[in-house]
Amino acid sequence: MREPDGGPSAIGLISDTLARLLSILRGEIALAKAEMRESVSGIGQAVALIAVAAVIAVVGLNLLAGALVLALVAAGLPQGAAALVVGLALVGLAAILFFIARARLQAASQAPRRMASSLRKDAAAVTGEKHDV
After folding, report:
1. Residues near 133 by Cβ (< 8 Å), separated by ≥ 6?
2. Which residues cross the membrane (predicted)?
């Protein structure tokens, strides 16, 4: 559309601007999709590598435990007692690590509750309402 003086009309300018904005928005959405696909692919590869590393670590720990049992047998302990000592030590270590991890997870799960409580208090302060939290 053109104005009588030959320049573009206001409606034409608005229409052109909206078309360009939509084009930019479509491009940004396409870029975001491509970045997400790339990110998900990288995460999948990282998880696969972690799984392979975990399997190798378990095999290595099994071999080390066997070597420790053999060392205790060579030191004069009966085979059964040596295996029991190593097994109990490993189970004890696993239990300690489990309880540490559980405590950290419980502490981390409290953070969202504290944040939500703080947000409710802030909202109440802004609106002037009183809420029991």
Report:
1. 117, 120, 121
2. 46-75, 81-105
